[in-house]
TrEMBL record:
Keywords: DNA-binding, Phosphoprotein. It holds the Pfam family Trans_reg_C. InterPro entries: CheY-like_superfamily, OmpR/PhoB-type_DNA-bd, Sig_transdc_resp-reg_receiver, WalR-like, WH-like_DNA-bd_sf. Gene3D superfamilies: 3.40.50.2300, 6.10.250.690, Winged helix-like DNA-binding domain superfamily/Winged helix DNA-binding domain (1.10.10.10). The keyword DNA-binding applies. It comes from the Bacteria. This is DNA-binding response OmpR family regulator. One of its GO terms (biological process) is regulation of DNA-templated transcription. Coiled coil: none annotated. Residues 124-218 bind DNA. PANTHER family: REGULATOR OF RPOS, TRANSCRIPTIONAL REGULATORY PROTEIN CUTR.
């Protein structure tokens, strides 16, 4: 899942990003509304965590733009106001959910994941194929009953391949969904991550390379 955080309190924004990355999400961060609109125009995000009181372009205007664009990104609006009229107004602008500051990080994660499920067809409780079982909630992977410890990126790559249900996923799509915007598009990090993932999953080989196209689960 790929998330954009638009929050002008830099320490808060960076803290949220660090926490979501620890949850195996790909996260980009901007600190004003104009930068948020620019990122949204060039990247496909599943969830936008949007501070309502952004500088340059107000969060309300960002929300209106997203709602009017027809984009599939879901909007979680952050605000300091807990008043019911403020919440109603935020939702009427096109936000999908609303969270009042200060908030518990665990609740933020739960709301982001719930919105992410709504931005695409819902995942089953477990992703399973060819003897591999991946639990998105617990972030656990088993192959033929054997626990497989994975890094966050290895877990993210395997989840995307399992979601594809045997169809080919390109390296570019894996970069888009698992890494953030700071990754070099010409890097070999996808190939290296897949090499390590294959080694951990063991034999028989599970992940197939399709020359010139990408990767798939056999």
């Amino acid at each position: 899942m790929r998330v954009l955080i638009a929050e002008d309190e830099r320490m808060l924004a960076d803290s949220i990003a660090e926490g979501l990355r620890a949850e195996a999400l790909a996260v980009d961060v901007v600190y004003d509304g104009d930068a948020a609109l620019e990122r949204l125009s060039v990247n496909d995000y599943d969830v936008l965590v949007l501070d309502r009181d952004l500088p340059v372009v107000h969060g309300d205007d960002v929300c209106r733009s997203v709602a009017g664009s027809g984009a599939s990104v879901r909007v979680l609006m952050l605000t300091a106001s807990a008043a019911v009229p403020a919440r109603v107004e935020g939702l009427s602008l096109g936000a999908d959910d609303y969270l009042v500051k200060p908030f518990a990080f665990e609740e933020l994660v739960a709301r982001v994941r719930a919105l992410g499920r709504r931005s695409r067809p819902a995942d089953p409780p477990m992703l399973e194929r060819s003897g591999v079982r991946l639990d998105p909630a617990r972030r656990e992977v088993y192959r033929d009953g054997r626990y497989v410890p994975l890094t966050r990126k290895e877990f993210g790559v395997l989840a995307e391949l399992l979601r594809a249900a045997g169809t080919v996923v390109s390296a570019e799509d894996l970069l888009e969904k698992v890494w953030d915007e700071h990754i070099d598009p010409f890097t070999n990090t996808v190939r290296v991550t897949l090499m390590k993932l294959r080694r951990k999953l063991g034999e028989p080989a599970l992940i197939e390379t399709v020359p010139g196209a990408g990767y798939r689960i056999r």
